[in-house]
Amino acid sequence: MKRFTPVYNVSFGLVLLTVSLLLIGDLIGLVPNAEKGLLEGRGKFSESLAVQFSLAFSRGDTELVKATLDTMVERDDEILSAAIRNVGGRVFAQAGEHEHNWIEIPLDKSTATHVQVPIFNGNRRMGTVEVVFDRPQGSASVFGFGSSLTTMVVFLTLTSFFAYLFFLKRTLRELDPRSVIPERVKSAFNALAEGLVIVDEKEQILLANTAFSDKIEVSADKLLGRRLSYLGWVHDSNQNRVLPWDAALANEKLTSGVPMKYETQRSGMLTFMVNTSPITDAKGAIRGALATFDDLTDLESKQVQLRHTITTLNQSQKELQEKTIELEYLATRDSLTGCLNRRAFFEKADQLYLEAMQSGTDLACVMVDIDHFKSINDQFGHAVGDKVIQLVTGELRANARPDDIVGRYGGEEFCIMLPGVDGANTVTIAERLRVKIKSATRGRLTGAVRVTASFGVAEISADIPGPADLVNLADKALYIAKENGRNRVIAWEGDCIQEQCDDPDHAIQDEITPGTGIDEPLADDPQAYVSASDDDHTDVELLTLQKRITGLEEELAYSQEVLIQQEGQDPVTGLPNRLLFRDRVRQALAHSQRNGRIAAVIVLDIDMFRRINDALGFVIGDQVLKKASERLLRVLRDTDTVALIDGDEESSTVSRTGADEFGVLLTDLKDVEMITWVVKRILDEMALPSEIDGHEIFMTCSAGISLFPYDGNDPDMLLQHANSARYNAKQRFSRNSFTFYSENLNQSSYKKLWFEGQLHHALELGELSLQYQPKVNLATGKITGMEALIRWNNPKLGFVSPTEFIPIDEHTGLIHEIGSWVIHSACAQARRWRD
Questions:
Q1: The dihedral formed by the CA atoms of 69, 74, 79 and 81, expressed in degrees to the nearest 10
Q2: pLDDT tens digits for 543-599?
Q3: Which of 307, 276, 93 is nearest to 194 (CA)?
Q4: Which residues contact 157 (CB under 8 A, 6 or more apart)?
Q5: Contact, 702 vs 736, CB < 8 A?
Q6: 431 near 510, Cβ under 8 Å?
C-alpha cells in the first residue's frame, strides 16, 4: 500500500485540528451567527407593525391597516409580501403575492425570511402579522453552495490543507537534518557498501544512505521520518522481538552480529547482519542510534549451496567407504567359494610367516587337491563340479580355526596355513579333513558322485626362506600323494616323505585304508573299516547282528527324544525344544504385530561339533552343549524374550532346536542395528576357551538371522530363512560368523565389523589424531579453552567421520581405551602449550 510522506500526514492533521476547533467554538456559541442577528432585527420590525395594527383595529380603522401593508411592501425592497391572518386562519388583508411566498411554519415560529407576530386587542388575540423577507445578501450561493457553517468548514478544510502543506514544505526544507550534514559527509555515507541508518530516540529515520535505500527498494526521501521498526522486517517466531536498535536506545550498549531478514518486492528475501551503536549528546543522554546493515544474502545462498555440497560429499564419501569395504572383500575373496584368493592368501601368509619366525612358533601348510576332478566335470558337468568345490571348501572352512587362513590356490586346489601347529598335529588335522570330505558327499550330491581329496603337508623350518617355499614343499608332498594312489595324506619332512597309512612305524595310525579312486566305499560304511587282509577273519553274521542292535538303539533313542519333545524340554540342556520355540515365535509375532515392533529369530550352531563328539566322545559333547547354553543365557539381556515357557518366570531365554543348534528370539526391538552387537557378543562369549573334563575346548558358532516383518510373517518362514542365512555364513565366512537373511543388512553388518577390526589397529598404527577448536568469549574476544576433536585417517578410506566410528567404539567397548588415549594426548598437548 502506498504511504504518504510525513509532510502530507502533518498537513492533514493540522486541518482536522482547525476544523475541530471551529466546530467546538460554534457548539459553545463563540462563532458569530449573522442569520441569528438578522432574525432578531426583522422580528422587532414585525412586532412594531403588530403594535400599530393593534391600535388600528382597536379604533376600527381597517383601511389604515391595508394602506400600511401596501406602503410597506412597495417601499421596502427586502419585504416581498405581508398579510394579516385572523385566528381562524383566513387572510384578512395582504400586500404582494403573499399566498405564493408564504410557507407553512409552526404558529408563532419565525425564520430569517418568514416572520410571524401575534396581534392582541387587550388580552384577546385578534390575529397574526405575517411578513416574507428577501434572502440576505450574504447568503448567496457560491459555486452552487449556500452560505452556511458546512460550506465554511469545507472551504476552510481545502484552503488550510494546501496552505499548511506549502508552509510545512518550506519549513521542513529549512529544518531538514540532512542540510546540517556536509555534502562530503553524505558522499562518504553513500560510498559505503553496507547500509547505514541514523534514527532518533523515537526510532524515526533521520538519515539513510544510498546502499540501504537501494537494498530495501525505498528511496531515501521516503524513508525520512519513518520508524525503522515499521519497515518490512520478517521476524522469526523463535527470535527475540527486541530489535537491535531498540536495545541500543534502551541500554546504551553496542550490539553486533544480529541477523535480520527483510522482504522486498523485486529481490525477495534479504538477509542483513546488523550492528548498532547508541548516539549520545554532551551530557551523555541518548539522542538516537546508528545502525549498519551488511547484506549477507549472497553469502547465505553460497553457504546453503556449500552445506548442500558438503552433504553430497559426505554421502559420496560414505558410499565410497562402503564400496571400498565391498571391493576389498571382493578383491580378496574367490567368488565361487568365498575363500581368500591367491594374492590375498599370500599377503596373510607373509604376515603369519614373519610372526612365526620372530616368535619361534610353529607354522604348517596343507595343500589340498580334489581327486579326479576333471573326471567329475566330464561325467556330471561343470555345475556338479562347482558344487563339489563348494562342498570341499565348506568342510575346509568349517573345520578351520579363526586364526587359520584358507585360500583357493587353483582350480580344484586349496591351501591352508595353520599357525601354532606342528607337523604331526597338522597331519592329524589333514587326515580328519580327508575323512570329512570323503563322508560329506552323502545326501548332498548325485548318488554316483564320490568325492575324495589328497593332502600334502609341510612344516616351517629355519631353512625355508619364505611362505612361498613352504607352500611349494606342501605342493610337492601333494604331488607324491596323487602319484601314489590319491585319497591320502603325505607329509614332507626334510628330504624324506612320510605317508599316512596302516604302517605302525609312522607317526599317526590311519583309521581308514587309503583307496585309489572315487568309487571307494564311504567311511561310515561298516565294510570300509575292514582291510583286505582281514576278510578271512570277519564274521558276516556278527556284523549283521551288530547293525541290527545299532538300529534298535537308534529307534529307542528316537522314541525317547519324541517323548521329551512332547514335554517341550531338551533333556541335555534343560532348555525349551524346537516345538516350543516355534510356538514362542508364533506368540511373539502376534505381539510384535500388535505393537508395531521388530522381532528377530537367530539360529546358531557350534562349529565342528561333530569333531568334538568323534574325538572326545558324546559325554564331553553333552557337556559342551550345556556350557554353550549357559553362555547364551549369560550374554543375552534380561529384556530379550527368547523361547519362554508358559507360566515359568525363571525359564531360560534360549532354546535348543537341534543336535548342536540353538534358537534365540529377540522381541520388542526398536533398532535393528542392535542385533549386530547382540550377536557379536554371543559369538565372542562362545569363542572363549572352556575347560571340560581336563580338555581345553575352543567353541565357535555360526549364526543366521531373520527379521519380522521384513523376512517373513510366520514362524516356519522365519526359521527357514534364519537357517538359510546360517548356512550362508558357513559358506562365506567359515567359522565364528553370522549373516542376515537380508543382503542389505548383511552389508551394513559387515561394514560395522570391518570398521571394528580396523579400529582395533587404529591406535597402534597412529591413525587417530586430535584437532583442537578454540572456545572464545564473545564479550572479550579471548580464548578461554579448547575442545579436543578426534579424527581418524584410515589409509584405505581416508578421513572417516566420527559419526561413523564413535557408535561402533561405544558398542564394542573400544570407547574406553580411545577415551583414555584422548585424555592423555589432550593433557600432554595442554602441558606443551603452557611450557
A1: 60
A2: 566 656 765 665 565 555 555 545 567 778 888 888 788 888 888 888 888 877 888
A3: 276
A4: 15, 19
A5: yes
A6: yes
